[in-house]
């Protein structure tokens, strides 16, 4: 069944993207590989939202597992019709895709907010831990000369911008793949039901 193969393909891609999201979110906790900033709570509040671990990670694992399962031909069918069982499975995958959309959407929103808000860092002007770029509404992303305002953690602006951008892209791709599976699941379910009715 071509719809099942398509779902399986989407599932494997989501699995890889979810693992990458988890890794990227974990790296946000350790600027320059140091653990002390996390233990001292000197990280951006958007890092602690776990958007890559929960949203783009575990909530995307659910549809990934469901979609991969659709690729197998183990559907038992219903009322003596195997195609009916496959159609029901394809239609139920739409619900799993919605879970993936919620998770990836959460990842995208928090990543965008993290980029817009900027990092939490120690500045030489204020001599304290602040969000120095909140007023710029993301404009700091193109004002590289201002990035040196953050003294600690070192290179925190580059660290945050890179990882939040990666999570934004990964979440966006996950969102698109889950949306494609909604269309695939509806078409596969309806097509299978039509085919089974025609055979009767």
From TrEMBL:
<feature type="transmembrane region" description="Helical">
    <location>
        <begin position="12"/>
        <end position="30"/>
    </location>
</feature>
<keyword id="KW-0472">Membrane</keyword>
<protein>
    <submittedName>
        <fullName>Transmembrane 4 L6 family member 1</fullName>
    </submittedName>
</protein>
<keyword id="KW-0812">Transmembrane</keyword>
<dbReference type="GO" id="GO:0016020">
    <property type="term" value="C:membrane"/>
</dbReference>
<dbReference type="Pfam" id="PF05805">
    <property type="entry name" value="L6_membrane"/>
</dbReference>
<feature type="transmembrane region" description="Helical">
    <location>
        <begin position="91"/>
        <end position="117"/>
    </location>
</feature>
<feature type="transmembrane region" description="Helical">
    <location>
        <begin position="50"/>
        <end position="70"/>
    </location>
</feature>
<comment type="similarity">
    <text>Belongs to the L6 tetraspanin family.</text>
</comment>
<feature type="transmembrane region" description="Helical">
    <location>
        <begin position="161"/>
        <end position="180"/>
    </location>
</feature>
<keyword id="KW-1133">Transmembrane helix</keyword>
<dbReference type="InterPro" id="IPR008661">
    <property type="entry name" value="L6_membrane"/>
</dbReference>
